[in-house]
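Key result, reporting period 2: structure in, sequence out.
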């Protein structure tokens, strides 16, 4: 559960600070690595859902607060 919470916060902050694209790329890279190393070639649906929810919340925060952060 601790790793899920850390992942949630990471994807949320990456989406808010950078962009939704960065959050999705980070999620895809991490979950593909986890699939290969820990889950025997199968996708962990719980981790993917948690990541998508975090990215969705980050998109909503960027939209409602009209954040236009450019680095």
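The corresponding designed sequence is given below.
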């Amino acid at each position: 559960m601790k790793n899920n919470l850390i992942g949630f916060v990471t994807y949320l902050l990456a989406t808010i600070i950078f962009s939704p694209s960065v959050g999705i790329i980070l999620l895809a890279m991490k979950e593909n690595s986890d699939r290969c190393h820990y889950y025997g070639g199968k996708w962990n649906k719980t981790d993917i859902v948690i990541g998508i929810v975090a990215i969705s919340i980050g998109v909503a925060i960027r939209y409602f607060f009209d954040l236009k952060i450019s680095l």
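The longest helix spans residues 45-64. The radius of gyration is 13 Å. This case is discussed further under Risks and Mitigation.
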